[in-house]
Amino acid sequence: MVDSVQGGVQVGVDIGGTFTDVVCRSSDGTVRFVKLPTTRKDESQAVLQSVALMAADWGIPAADIARFAHGTTVATNAVLERKGARIGLITTAGFRDVLEVGRQMRHQMYSVVLDGETPVFLAPGARRKEARERVAADGTVLVPLDEDDVRRAAAELVADGVEAIAICFLFSFRNPAHEARAAEIVRAAHPGLKVAVSHEVDPAFREYERTVVTAFDAYVKPVIDRYVARLETGLERAGVPAPLQVMQSRGGLMVSEVARQRPVRLFLSGPAAGVIGARMAGAAAGIEDLITVDIGGTSCDIALIDKGRALVRSEGVIDGYPVRVAMVDVNSIGSGGGSIAWIDRGGGLRVGPQSAGSEPGPACYGRGGEKPTVTDASIVLGYLNPDYFAGGALKLRPDLAEKAIRDHIAGPLGMTLEQAALGIHRVLNAQMAEGIRLVSIRQGLDPRRFALMPLGGGGAVHATALARDLAIRRVLVPRHPGILSAAGLLAAPVEHEMATAFGRTLSETTPADIRAVLDGLDAGCRDLMALERLDGAAVTVRYAADVCYVGQSYTLEIPLRMDDPAPLDRLYDDFLVDHDRVYGHATRIPARIVNLRAVHQAGGGDFSEAPPVATGGSPEKGTRRLLVAELSGPVDAKVYDRAAMPPGFTFAGPAIVEQADTTTLVEPGWHGAIDAGGSMILTHQDA
Fold first, then answer.
1. Average pLDDT of the segment spanning 521-545
2. d(Cα 202, Cα 208) in Å, to the nearest integer?
3. pLDDT in tens, 617-662
4. Omega before 191 cis (within 30°)?
5. In terms of C-beta density within 10 A (0-12 exposed, 13-18 middle, 19 or more buried), how is residue 492 classed?
6. Which residues pair with 37 in a beta bridge?
7. Is 322 exposed, middle or buried, given 0-12, 13-18 or 19+ CB atoms closer than 10 A?
8. Backbone CA torsion sign across 570, 575, 581, 585
9. Residue 254 in contact with residue 272, Cβ under 8 Å?
10. 161 torsion bin: left (phi>0), alpha (psi -120 to 50), beta (else)
11. What single string gives the DSSP state of each residue in 588-651?
12. How far apart are CA 316 and CA 39, in angstroms?
């Protein structure tokens, strides 16, 4: 499959909270794209609409599609909106409350009212059952599994209306026999029930984290199964011959059949695709160190690419809860073009996390929204062309934007309309700048040595203001920033990852011990790869180990180079370097390997596009009066048509650069140039 796509049409569809982005690449390198409103009631409908649009508007029949890659927010939204399945949980006797007790760690120590910080909503007490069994820490059986307990617990949960059951026994990552047998019993008695078992979802120590991720897997499994089934059926009816591929949270694709088996790995599917697309665009422009800011209608996703490599963390956070699944290190905040501006009880201006989304959308959409948003502020400040929003697909109403800001912000705060709009942008930019500091300084990296890359429909509007706040002197705006997440789907590799607990100090293990475990992980990855129809494509294999000092609680993922003459010595040295970078110190004291990981990849890494060709004519479209935060009054900015800007074209701010998928605000003091590949590079005059 990977080798065959070069001769056909490749399609990437990324669903966001407001828009669904569609990218279509023909075999000659021609790229077409479109933004469709996300169909929130059934997100698969927007995906299927894109297939019909390609045939009707672009003359591309469904039968010509050789690759169909998809990034989805369905799993994440199911958690955020509490619309997952009704599930039950079966645990070792005496440990039914692990999910509720958690680690007793609180992020808010001094609140007057303390809310629970464990995901009890997944399986409240009445839907948590026990089975008598016990496996010791070394894997030996202390108490045999009571199979009648399992049958009784499953029957009670099914009678309570559950759609899925999660099974999590103590130390099952050491000896999974009891969990495997319990799953057999449940599936035999209730064939239509979805089952998630912890030794398959997360075979690692720490029972709370393992219970949480297994429960989340069960929670989203029926939702993902129904969604993927609708999508597969719709694509088949539309005549699309290509298998459906789905983006995982760590930045690789998997066929939909595997996605149904491992749904918890779909968290951050869309943001991961954006990071892959950014890495691709950065490589094309010769820039390896990037901070990406993906601003859509609902959220802002911030990530860091260091030396051409996207940072991946072994545990993510969804809605404040730990989810131990490998994810691209993305910091998501509720700051987007549709984020609603409001006044708190203390009279302070706030922006987000509530969003107007696409239904009804910002006030300027004219679809019934009355609350002021960031997009409304951008209209008031002159940054957006009301007649050319989303390539002219949506005509905006400046009068409604002005009314919303005047009624809800300017009037109550005693400000002018323009002051209120600038205030909204300042607050949003401050929130995003803090998010950028978290993904850079937290990793021991200075943001000033990186270039800033704006993505999404709203990223380029805020890019130079963010760069100014962070003392970043270079901004890279790719050719199609508004749809780069969808393009990233077509540059992503097919990837599968397996991990397992190891739990030995470096001094008491050998390369042969590690090799034996990795062989088992490789076998699991090969089984998953066999479902991908790769047609003999080359597969690359990488290994990693989660390492920490003896007695330390948290680990760092370190590449494990088994081809090195002394792999354990190399692992320890690399651990010391990373520990010093992240924590500011490193000492040559004993360390241990907590988990081992194997990652198999095939394809990906390329999204070749035909060289840019300017449309001809003058790039200048006139001037527009606008306000920027650092100036006291309005300025006249030149407006450019990016499609008419040839490679080598240069210009200076203040300026507005318009294109179908985004608008770029270039503040005074910045200079722009179009490189040979069509990317726009903005540099500050002090650089």
1. 88
2. 11
3. 789 989 999 988 766 678 999 999 998 999 999 999 899 999 988 8
4. no
5. buried
6. 19
7. buried
8. negative
9. no
10. left
11. ---EEEEEEEEEEEES-S----PPP---SS-SEEEEEEE--TTSSS-EEEEEEEGGG--TT-EE
12. 27
- 3 state SS of 62: helix
Determine the angle formed by the axes of helices 207-238 and 44-58, rounding to 10 degrees.
30
| Contacts (Cβ under 8 Å, ≥6 apart) of 485 | 14, 16, 21, 71, 270, 271, 273, 274, 277, 294, 455, 456
pLDDT single digits (tens) 205-219? 889 999 999 999 999
Percent of the chain with pLDDT over 70: 94
The DSSP annotation for 183-243 comes to HHHHHHH-TT-EEEEHHHH--SS-HHHHHHHHHHHHHHHHHHHHHHHHHHHHHHHHT--SP
Per residue in 213-250, pLDDT tens? 999 999 999 999 999 999 999 899 989 999 999 999 88
Beta-carbon contacts of residue 140 (< 8 Å; ≥ 6 apart): 175
SS3 315: coil
For 395-419, how does the pLDDT look when each residue is reduced to its tens digit (9 = 90+)?
899 999 999 999 999 999 999 999 9
Those residues with Cβ within 8 angstroms of residue 70's Cβ, 6 or more apart along the chain or in another chain: 12, 13, 14, 15, 47, 231, 244, 245, 246, 247, 489
Three-state DSSP at 288 gives: coil
Give the span between the Cα atoms of 654 and 258, in whole angstroms: 49
Q: Name the β-bridge partners of 659.
A: 662
Residue type, 306: D
Residue 126 buriedness (CB in 10 A; 0-12 / 13-18 / 19+): exposed
Buried b (16+ CB within 10 A) or exposed e, 21-49: bbbbbeeeeebbbbbbbbbbeebbbbbbb
Query: pLDDT (tens digit, 9 = 90+) per residue, 661-672?
Result: 889 999 999 999
Tally of CA atoms within 13 A in the half-sphere of 440 that contains its CB: 25
Q: Please enumerate in sequence order all residues whose Cβ is within 8 A of that of 552, keeping only pairs 6 or more positions apart, or say none.
A: none
Assess contact for 69 and 47: CB atoms under 8 A: no
**pLDDT of amino acid 3:** 37
Both structure tokens of 459 = 């990223």
Phi-psi region of 317 (alpha: psi -120 to 50; beta: other; left: phi over 0): beta
Q: What is the CA radius of gyration of the chain?
A: 26
Helix 147-159 with 177-189: angle, nearest 10 deg:
50
Nearest partner of 167 among 50, 87, 100, 256, judged by Cα: 87
| Residue written as token pair 């998630």 | 196
Are 653 and 669 in contact, with CB atoms under 8 Å apart? Answer: yes
Amino acid at residue number 183 = A
Q: Which residues pair with 63 in a beta bridge?
A: none
Give the pLDDT confidence of 274-310 residue by residue, as tens digits. Answer: 888 899 889 889 999 999 998 877 778 888 998 888 8
Q: In sequence order, which residues have a C-beta less than 8 Å from that of residue 486 and are 6 or more positions away?
A: 12, 13, 14, 21, 22, 23, 33, 71, 273, 277
Tell me the mean pLDDT in the region 477-499.
89
Residue 554 · residue 205 · CB < 8 Å = no
Is residue 119 over pLDDT 80? yes
C-alpha 295 chain-centroid distance? 12
